[in-house]
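Supplementary notes for students who missed Thursday's class. We covered one full example, reproduced here. Read the sequence, then the structure, then the short commentary at the end.
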Amino acid sequence: MNQGQITEANFFGHPIGLRTLFLTEMWERMSFYGMRALLVLYMTGAVTGFNGGLGFSQVDAQAIYGIYVGMVYFMVVPGGWLADNLLGHQRAVLYGGVVITIGHFTLALPLQQTFFLGLALVVLGTGLLKGNISTIVGELYSGRDDQRDSGFTLFYMSINIGSFLGFLVCGYLGEKVGWHWGFGAAGIGMLLGLIQYVRYRSLLGEAGAEPNAMPEFRRKALSKYSIMVGSAMLLLLLGALLGWVEIEARAFAENFAYFLTVLSGGYFLYLYLFAGLKDEEKRNVLVLFFLFIAAAAFWSGFDQSGGSLNIFARDYTDLAIGGFEMPVSWVQFFNPIFVVIFAPLFAAFWTYLARRNLDPSLPVKFVIGLLLMALSFVVMLFAVGLALEQELVSVRWLLLTYLLHTWGELALSPIGLSAFSRYSPKKYVGQMFGLWFLASAIGGVLAGILGGEALDSGLETISPVFSFMIKYYLVIAAVMLIIAYLMRQREPNQRH
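Structure (token representation):
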């Protein structure tokens, strides 16, 4: 099938290849969020009794959760590099799906010894798949920038349909039947996505099919280097799993956050000063840097859903509906439901504004997302205050919180994906998508650290942490508004 034939068919007015990526992402996100919804609950669960967990402390469990989320998105950077230089994005997605599937089925084994091994495999596989599938989406729209934002918003719906299925199926099985049944269901979801991808991969045409052009001798040298680094990482992981390397979760999380911050800042600096970019490319990289900062801050609040907000739902929220006690993890599917409802409205709204030359600049859209996230924690402060006065609070408080999270997410996340697709230097597009997900990595680690602080001594420690988060959202939003003002006249090409 040639490229011309591919573009004749369409998926809701978009390239037909988007269907393949939509379904692959949907099943992968089903597995990812289904497992993530159970992670903190499983780690903090009692060791004995029905559906016994690992018995970790709140601080350690939150730190491990943050490390896991951070590692998932951190590995997108080397995953993007491997795709750009050695594998091509299509093969990277395929290999990543295989490793993720193995990881989830490893978690499904009823053995504590395989827990961290399963997490490690999911991390490695997601690093290969996550950023590269977004890169392929962007390549489907080469020369079609007018459809790019709405295409990414449609693609974003797949993430949330998948997460809804994950929360619904894995959450119920994990909490009501057994933790490892939930982990196994996540593995089946990823397997379905993998089968679908293999069968319909041809619809992608040449989008992301081949790595960057380079002399064969250089590619062989890079392959050898990659094998050496990968082997060293595998030995380190094996040492940790066998107890040869002692790791204190909270300290590791804090150091990991510092490492990610220095790494991302250093890489942006390298691109700006030493990558040989043209002046316009440098300006675009600078814009993406500020968007990166805002995104990292946003995700540190958003990822509380699997951490502190998950525990708040379990310990301080009335989940009874009639005679049915709703699984704790089900509270999290408010977000994907809201995304599926509101994503088409946001996509239509941006298109409407763009046609009338009223579309807000990229920084302004991010400001909207940050302000909505700040407002969500204002809501949670009221909920915490009520929880101090009564035994359980209504689930409506969390429903409103997740609604605000959703609106903020739709103002920021698909727009960020589109921006990194459009403005990244072509030679570094895979790695730039890696940087976009590195913002999620920093946010995830911070979510674990802040969540641990919030839950350290019960309800009394939640309010100060949430108040701090509101303040830093407001500060970053103010900085982004200043940037938007400076860009308005000097960088009209950055508006869309």
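Commentary. Residues 154 and 344 are 7 Å apart (CA to CA). The mean pLDDT is 84. If anything here is unclear, bring it to office hours.
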